[in-house]
Structures are given as C-alpha cells and as structure tokens.
Write the structure tokens for this entry.
Amino acid sequence: MADFKGSTIYQIYPKSFCDSDGDGIGDIRGIISRLDYIKSLGVDYIWSTPFFLSPQKDNGYDVEDYRRVNPQFGTMEDVEELIEKAGERGMGLMFDMVFNHTSTRHEWFQRALSGEKKYMDYYIFRDGDPQAPPTNWQSKFGGPAWEYVPSLRKWYLHLFDVTQADLNWNNPEVRNELKDVLRFWKEKGVKGFRFDVVNLISKPEVFEDDMEGDGRRFYSDGPRVHEFLKELTADSGIGDMVTVGEMSSTSLEHCIRYTDPAEHELSMCFSFHHLKVDYKNGNKWELAKPDYRRLKELLMTWQRKMAEHNGWNALFWCNHDQPRIVSRLGDTDRYWKESAKMLGTCIHLLRGTPYIFQGEELGMTNPGYNKIEEYRDVESINYYHIMLQEGKTEEEALEVLRQRSRDNGRSPMQWNSGEYAGFSNREPWIGIPANHTFINVEDEDGDPDSILNYYRKLTALRKRYPIIQEGMIEFLYEDQEEVFAYRRTRNGQELIVLNNFFGKEVTLQKELSHAGYRRLIGNYPQEDSGTMLRTLRPYESIAFIKE
Ligand code: TEU
C-alpha cells in the first residue's frame, strides 16, 4: 500500500484553478504552471476532478471518453507532462473515475440508442409505459431518475442528470471495460484514483417503488458493491495505489468494510454525514443553523469506530460540491482568519488522511452570487426552479443557493488581487468573489500569520510527528457543545488538541493542565498563562504535545 496514511492530498477543480490560454477556463497547463505552489503546501498527492472528453453538462462528471482529454483542458501530452512534472516534485496524481454512469454521448450509450443489444446491456434499460417510469425514484439533481427513449420504447436509469446514464455493473463486460480504463491510466504513471459515487454502482435485481424516499435505500451500498470493488481492485492491479471512494448516503459499517485493508477494496472513503448538520430535516434546500452537537457526535463516532475496526477516514470539509467551510461554520466578518485556521486544525490533527480543496488553504469564502444568471451548476439551476414551484420567492431561493449551491466551491482560485484574481486574463466562466483583493496566494504567501502559512504548518506537522497519523484517539469535553477536543497517544507521546467552534470566549468545563507539554500550534499569539488552560478565545484552536 502506498503511504496514504502519512499523506495530505490536494484537490484541484481544473476548470477553476488556473487558465493558461486566456479562454476564461482553467486548464492542465495552468496546473503545471502552479506545481511549485502546490508543492509548497507540503502535499503528497494531487487529486484532479475529471478533465476527460465530456459535453460538460455536469462539468466533466459526464464522461464521453475515459481515455481522451477534453480539448478545453488541453491535450494528452499536457496530461503526461503534468504527471511527470508532479512526479519530479515528489507528488503523485490521482485521477477521478466516474464509473457509476457515463455521458449519454459516450459511444457505448450511442450504440445502445441505435439498438445494439450488447451495448443496451451496458446500461439499465427497462420496459414500461411511456407515461409511467419503472419506479418513482428521483434523480439527485431533481426530477425523475428515469428517461424514456421512444425509439427503443424503453426507459433508462439516471441517478444524476438526464445526460448521465447509469452503467449496468451486473454485466461483467462493463466491469472489464472499466478495469481497462484503470490500467490505461496506471500505465501513464497515475498514482491513485478517486472513485465517484462508487457506493451506488450495485443496483438491486428487482426495481421497486420507494414509498419512504427517493429510491436511494435500494442502491446506496447496494447488494454486490463489496464484491465489485474487490474485483475491480484485484483485476486492474491497483491494490497498491492510493484510492478513495466517494460514498453517497453511506453507513459507518459499510465504510469500515470499504477501507479495512484485509478486505482489499479501497484505501479510504469520503462520507458526508458531517456536512449535513445544517440541513433542515435532512433537506439540503432548507436552511438551518449548524447543529454542533450532532457534528461533534458524528466526528467522534466515525473516528472511534474506524479506529476500532481498522478502517480509514478521508478527512475533509470542502470539495467542489460543497459550500466553503469558513462561510459555513466560521465567521467571515469578525473571525475570518481565526475560524478558517481552527477548522483546518480540527481535521488535520485527526486520525485519517486530510484533503485540502483548492483555495481552502487561503480561507476562500462563498462567492455570494446575487442573480440566478451567475450560477452555472445544473443542480443549482434545477433546484432553483423546483424551489420556486414549491412556493419560495426568488429572493428566498437565491438565499438558499448563496448558502448551498455547489458553485460556492467552484469560483476561480484567487492567485492575486488583480482584475481576474490572477486566474485568467479575461472574464472567467464563473464569477470571481470581490474579496480576492485580500484573500489570495500572493498576499498570503509572504505573511507569516496567513491562513496559507498556517496550512503549511499543519501539513508539515503530520510529516514530522507520526502520532498524528498513527496515534490512538480519545475525546475530551465530550458534553461541551462549543468545544471539540481530543487527545492522541502513541508510545508514551501525547498530543492534545482543542478547538472552539464558537465565535465567543468559552470557559472549559474543567480546566486543562498542560504542565510538561509544549505548545505545538495555535491560531492566536501565544500567551504566557502558566500551565492551566481555562478559557478558549473565539474560534481558538490550540494543540500541545508531550514527547
Ligand atoms: O457527487 C455525488 C453527490 O451525490 C453529491 O456530492 C451531490 O452533488 C450532492 O450531494 C447533491 O446535493 C459526485 C461528484 O462529486 C459531483 O460533482 C457529480 O456531479 C456527481 O458525483 C455525479 O457524477
């Protein structure tokens, strides 16, 4: 196994990272031009979201050809150069495999549409009344999960956009095709893979209506998913590479199985329960205040159980589908810097492999788009209309998008304070937040107190202190809502981490003695306050080590 446990992984959304050719869209050469910057973060792997040939209905998660590069992003030579130049700097590339579905423009689907039996069996087609879909399942992007094809007189399943047709993993030929794709990229020198919604690949034998929900209970962590993952890993020879599965509406029990090394499935997985603590009744499109107790409970349970059963967590707050964490759990007006650093400390010193999503290391915020015309994401646009139909006013629906849209994580990377934030030399495909004038790489790079330099310290600590990756974990102040605190232990070493989730000073339920410990990192200037800690300042984060 690759040393994924001691690694930090940087996520790039190429469309929004760096535009080298002035078309307003980020590209592969843009990434190459920024490799030294990425290296300076102290990360080991770079996960890039898809840049494969695609009509871009879902920004590349609708793949037309897994072996070709979308011309918008560059050429195969560019991708090879990226792999090579990252390698020279000691960083491995992880590519994003969207294997639950393909674009309907994929050759397989096109041949299915023309009635070729072989390829019809690559997808999930069902007979049925043109007026009534086979089941009442809903697409994750809104509307029914089935689309009718009059020429075939059949429906096909699409759990996401209508242009993203679900593959039929029960067909061994499909599984073999996908293994070939992995071999292809492995031969090019890719060091790992991220598997998109990979716990949705196994659909039930019989399709039935869901009277309680949108259908997800029938296919999330579906009947043959573990078998499929074992086979995929073994047959494509990726067992020694770093792999992460994105798990949608999963369970702890399944994530233990996905990541227990004895199972030979994946290195680690992303789960999302901790990022739903501000949904009202589990509904992303209804705003609620974050439930910090629930957040703590989830983080603690997943940490404890994964450790007990030999599982491994991917640790993350942000990605290209999530609003910016500092806008969500921090305070961008009064405590922007403190809260961004606290949130970083909170997960980087836990057991698992931390991910940094481009711009998170700068404390980038939600862009605050004000008009529906500023949104690009298919999910946001669909749900905007659904919200209006359901009776919300335009202003209410926009407020929900300002907080919940996936575009919040997709605004261009802020490189400098210039007109287009150093991302491009022309108007980019999606708007740049006004705050790039002070939240940007150039300004933060030279400022020892910046969020950027704080993140660099966090990645360096993980390298220097094995206790961070390997130490046992127990939790402190479990009943105190405002405080998320833990103790790591290893070979007589101890690490104590305290985080104040709130924008006010809190008094610890019981004062903490740190006699014999040394302060390792913190987001406030060090105070000489003896060996007892009684209070935490707003969003304060502090870690002590005893060696
Ligand atoms: O996302 C899977 C997914 O279900 C969620 O992140 C989803 O976007 C959100 O919960 C809806 O509220 C993955 C990719 O990360 C995403 O960008 C793709 O759109 C999606 O799969 C389909 O490939």
Observations:
- Residues 58, 61, 98, 140, 160, 196-197, 246, 248, 284, 320-321, 379, 406 surround 1-O-alpha-D-glucopyranosyl-D-fructose (CB under 6 Å).
- The longest strand covers residues 483-490.
- DSSP finds 17 helices and 24 strands in the chain.
